[in-house]
Amino acid sequence: MAEAPSTASLLPLLVFHHQPQPGHDDEMLMFSVPKQSLHERLMEHDHLAGGNNMSWTTPQGWMLIITKSSSLSSAAFLWNPLTGDKLPLPNISKEHDIPQQCKCLLSHKDPTHPACVVVLFHRTEPDMWCCRVAAGASYGGWRRYTYDIGDYELPESYRDPPTPRVIFGVAARQGKIYFTDTKETMGVIDFTSDDDPDFSYFDVAMVDYPEGMNSGINSLVESQEDLFLVYVCFVGFDATNIGAIRAYKMEFSAEQQQACWRRVHDIGDFVFLLENCNMGASRAAAPSGLKANRIYFMNNFIKDDASLCIFDLETGARDIAQVHQHQDMHIIRKPFWIVPPS
């Protein structure tokens, strides 16, 4: 009998959180990019799909697991999917109840860094939750914030009441969270203080769409302490027709008072793994047996299917892989990546 592959050799994994039949327990179908193979009930399945558990991946590889409880608080911890190691977090009280429709990241690559903060952003509301991993009494465990970055610019007939803007593209770099703000500015969130997070902004012009393309999806990615912007551009406003995929690297001035996006065709010996929440992970290609300088993302902007797009930045070649043959899979949430912790 052939020896089962190690978890490390299977990562990164593309995970389809689904419900096989109504009333049945959730399942996780996992596609290994290096092995081009499908797996079920891999790793500690109950952490990912247990009836009382909620889970979020992070670009840093660690996963946030919350065990829901009928008591006044729920247990939470960070989990390393490669080693099984756990880092306990303060319990989450009912007043800070966190919904599943959030995206999660760490402020630092190493969660044991004394200043590392777990941050979750609600996808449709201007709410965020924060917790310092090495939480001291002064920080007070989990906190919920409703931030204000302005309102959406809508036609006058739709402005009453105003619609608050929410944070979309996010990436952690050098202990701070960067986010796309407007066409002229980027935002930065600093968690250094034990008080509320500090929001600041700097000027940088957003890139233009290529000719003939009027819409698209952008994602922020941190790689080797650099900040990248990946644009998946649509022909006109047709999200089923991808016209271009471009990557840009942020260039800071010496004083970091000015910045600009510079288009790149080389991201080194790395791959970018994009999710549908305007962020992504960067991982070294060689240790996983992957070809470098590629961008992976699900081509499911309109409907959920099994189409994984692989884009070669150097050649411009684009491949589509059908990662499973399950028809009419009832997806609980959009596919997400499990990557080795950085």
Automatic annotation (TrEMBL):
Highest taxon in the source lineage: Eukaryota
Protein name from the UniProt record: KIB1-4 beta-propeller domain-containing protein
Domain KIB1-4 beta-propeller: 31-312
Pfam assignment, any one: Beta-prop_KIB1-4
Organism field: Eragrostis curvula
InterPro entries: KIB1-4_b-propeller
